[in-house]
């Protein structure tokens, strides 16, 4: 079965950096659209970044453009989210999710599999 495991979260000061990892088993990430979502307490889950397979489009939500970078390591079957210049508003649980349709979207109902999430906390 498909399993996605996020890691790399933690507590950082404003302006700091973290790199999140999403390791996959049961599927080859290179064949799937993969996105990062986040959910803060009391708020709905929102899309952060999306990567299409086969060197397709990459999408970022406006609030993270210029600060976050999504990337893949196909040999490790892992996707990363490099987060720089973190802000307190970035505090949330971050999830990776996969979609068999090779087109980016942040409609959460269209995603097939989800990881358990990793907590990111940014202090001011």
Short précis:
The protein has 124 residues and is mainly β. Helices cover 0% and strands 49% of the residues. It has strands at 3-7, 10-13, 18-25, 33-39, 46-51, 58-60, 68-73, 78-83, 92-99, 113-114, 118-123.
Keywords:
seven-stranded mixed β-sheet; four-stranded antiparallel β-sheet; globular; single chain; 124 residues; mainly beta
Q: What is the share of helical residues?
A: under 10%
Indicate the low-confidence ranges by residue numbers.
none
- The number of helices is 0
How much of the sequence lies in strands comes to: over 45%
* Derived structural class: mainly beta
Principal-axis shape equals globular
> How many strand units?
11
Q: State the separation between the terminal residues, measured CA to CA.
A: 40 Å
Oligomer: single chain
The SSE string, one letter per element, is EEEEEEEEEEE
Mean pLDDT across every amino acid position: 97
Rg, alpha carbons? 13 Å
State the major sheet. 7 strands, mixed
Describe the structure.
- Strand 4 (33-39) and strand 5 form a beta hairpin.
- The chain has strands at residues 3-7, 10-13, 18-25, 33-39, 46-51, 58-60, 68-73, 78-83, 92-99, 113-114, 118-123.
- The protein contains no helices and eleven strands.
- The protein is mainly β.
Break the fold down into its secondary structure elements and pairings.
Layout: E1 3-7, E2 10-13, E3 18-25, E4 33-39, E5 46-51, E6 58-60, E7 68-73, E8 78-83, E9 92-99, E10 113-114, E11 118-123
Parallel strand pairs: 2-11
Antiparallel strand pairs: 1-3, 3-8, 4-5, 4-9, 5-6, 7-8, 9-10, 9-11
């Amino acid at each position: 079965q498909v399993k996605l495991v996020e890691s790399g979260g933690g507590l950082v000061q404003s302006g700091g950096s973290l790199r999140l990892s999403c390791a996959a088993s049961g599927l080859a990430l290179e064949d799937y659209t993969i996105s990062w979502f986040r959910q803060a307490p009391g708020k709905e889950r929102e899309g952060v970044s999306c990567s299409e397979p086969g060197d397709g489009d990459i999408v970022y939500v406006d609030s993270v453009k210029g600060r976050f970078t999504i990337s893949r390591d196909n040999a490790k079957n892992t996707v990363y989210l490099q987060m720089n210049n973190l802000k307190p508003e970035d505090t949330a649980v971050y999830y990776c999710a996969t979609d068999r349709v090779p087109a980016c979207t942040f409609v959460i109902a269209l995603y097939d599999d989800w990881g358990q999430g990793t907590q990111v906390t940014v202090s001011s």
